[in-house]
Records
---
Amino acid sequence: MKQIVTESFFFGAVLSLLAYELGLLLKKKMKMAIVNPILIGILAVMGVLSLWDIKYETYQESAKYISYLLTPATVCLAVPLYEQMKLLKKHWKAVMVGICSGVLASLGGVFLLAKAFDLSHELYVTLLPKSITTAIGIGVSEELGGIATITVAVIIITGILGNVIAEAVFRFFHISEPIAKGLAIGTSSHALGTAKALELGQVEGAMSGLAIVVAGLLTVILAPVFAPLL
Amino acid sequence: MRLLKQFSIILAVAFLGELLNVCLPLPVPASVWGLALMLIFLCTSIIRLEQIKETADFLVEIMPVMFIPAGVGLLTAWDVLRPVWIPVSVITAGITVLVMAVTGRMTQRMIRKGKRKDG
């Protein structure tokens, strides 16, 4: 049995899809924020791998075909954005101010907390790009002399967390404008959070997609300014 | 053949994004170039919405599943995270909430200020 699994081209992909389906099913049944299909999916796959003692590399061998679609899917985020173009043109100033303040809060907040925890420069620059999409974040981290593997891990944890807590944060801070919700998710938790924004609505999804791009580019420009501070 | 054509257009734009990523000395990944290009093509009617719509909607809809392999990959990151996990967790959680709240509140305030001026 194990040999079939380790040599399969489809095992990892099927396991990921089934795990996500399980997450969707549980979400429908329980309706709690923590019962999040991505989080459940990840935990279920982890469970199966450790239960059957299957290596991550073995799983990744076929699961990578699912990740392969991530670039074309990100390209397609242009479609909801295009459909909301009129709204974007009308509110472009609010959109820009919102994303800029979020990026500054991210970089400034990481600096203050890193100082409070007395982190090394290396770990500080590793955490600086934590809010932006993985592909840009790795580049920024490496450029500044950070540890890329930790950056990737932190970016993914940020994304899952943002996806799980978004609705609670909006309730707590009384954020109800769809544009504001979308930008908040995209700026704080990139594409992984955007999955939640798309679930909330078309405007939220479109704005979240836009925020991935703008926040990512702003961080590329501003992170080198913050890096020498610590 | 309509869906195949749609998928081909999307992959072609992703490929153009990849080309820009390789050719230009900027730390912008293929996916972000591709998103920007696709938006420009749609706005300038080089690509019409109906030429990609169904396939694009499908890919965006199944996007959450694509993050599962990366999330499972956290299993392999534990060894490097272990020595620093306390400050890293606090910073990760704290900043995520902070950025979400600041971006959301700022945008909302700007939009409502604009609305008052309109009315």
---
Amino acid sequence: MSVLVVGEISNGSLRAASKEAAYYGHLTAQKLGGECTVLLIGEAQDASELGVYGANKVLTVDPGSEGFDSRVYADIIKQTAQSTDAKAVIFMHSSTGKSLAGRVSVALGAGLVSGATSIPEASTNGYSVSKSVFSGKAIATYEITSPTMVISVMGNSFKPEAVGAACEVTANTLSAKTANTQILGRSTQSGTVPLPEAELVISAGRGMKGPENWGIIEELADCIGATTACSRPVADIGWRPHHEHVGQTGVAIRPNLYIAIGISGAIQHLAGVNNSKVIVVINKDPEAPFFKAADYGVCADLFDVVPRLTAALKNA
Amino acid sequence: MNSLVCISKTPDTTAKISFVDGNTAFNEDGVSFILNPYDEWYALVRAIELKEEKGGKVTVINVGDPSNDIIIRKALAIGADEAVRINKKAESSADVALQVAEYVKNNNFDIIFLGKETIDYNGAEVGAMIAEHLDLDYVSFASKMESNGDGFKVTRDIEGGIEEIALSAPFVISAAKGLAEQRIPNMKGIMMAKRKPLNVVEPVGFNGHVNVASFSLPSEKGGVTMVDPENMEELVRLLKEEAKVL
């Protein structure tokens, strides 16, 4: 019996999310008994490092073609889950994990809880796992009753801790389906942590008055290594790139710190950010609804406050 | 090119969330329900655009009881040609995926569209499940879809960027913002929707593996601490020492 974690790779190295997934798998293996095995589809030069976060071993499988194909990957994961006698199959709740978890649950006849924020606990008829629902307005606890369970873990729910040492990496060969789809290209911003994984996020909205004023936001973000984000109107009018839009129709995030600057806090915006651990709101309108959802508020002109905050952080 | 669009009913974003039956069921009393925005704004409209480009038919499918007919009629008013309702209150996303997959097995579709997730449970489960039941290709979080020879070129959102994929029908595609522009139903569409077919189909048997044991509400926020705008050193101190996030 074992726990199988599906790791993610980008440009030949582990994605940070893989470490959180391995650590979650380790905690789950402690509950269920058995080992934590991480499956990597493709090669990662730092694969053995997953042992530090709780993997007992890493299996790598060559997908046989370039790029991600959910049909092929799900087949590889299903076969590996069967050969390792996996009781739980763990994904991150990422663009990759969301494309695979449903497929693998059907392939294994297993119950699925997606976006989990807790470790499975033994319950009356199986295992119980919780997740945030209704845009963070409630928590649902599910009971999974199938012999195998599939879980995707909400990013930034578990801070990976060093619990072991580098582990063995074994290449596995298996005969899987072949891909019908072809990846034509991929472009990602480099140098910053992607929003769904970011622990610190600086977000700005219409209060900025124009795209030419974003320098002060970028300077603030740079001085604490934060990722920048924006509200929907700002993305819609093209002041900022689409992938920066956080909120209900954009990216949902749960950083440790979310600083919202010149954003009024419409309910659709809050739906994407109210799982943040700490929210700071900077807005000159004392009636801005965002203050009700904030932990700390500064009511003043952002063009005065933001440079002052940057200076205070640099001097701290 | 015949498309099937899976549509869901969700509570409005502003709905008050409460629970009944010993916190095991969502309290629908007084809640206004809407067509899930990702299904309506992006998946359905892109399917209609595709029909306008290439001909064919757009069918919408929903798993639900007769109270869902109102949102199904809205999809018809926006421009779907016909509708199917699988006649049961869905137990879970796995139930929905099974019912839709069974319907597709008996009826031919080139592309199955759905929103990237519903705004209540945010699971993004159904599309992947349908694709696996039918052994079809699946592209999730599509923000652009263009004809590319006999097939399509689809752009999907990934963490901090995009990926471009070439593929051919049949496939399942989940829609993110950008795939299409929202359309508002006009009076003619609303009148025509009343005469479009809405076929009610009985469900197949379903054995679930997951159920909600209980709901709870998150702990209340402690209220906002206002900081003097002249004293940003104090905000930095609070973030470091009180909140411990820096």
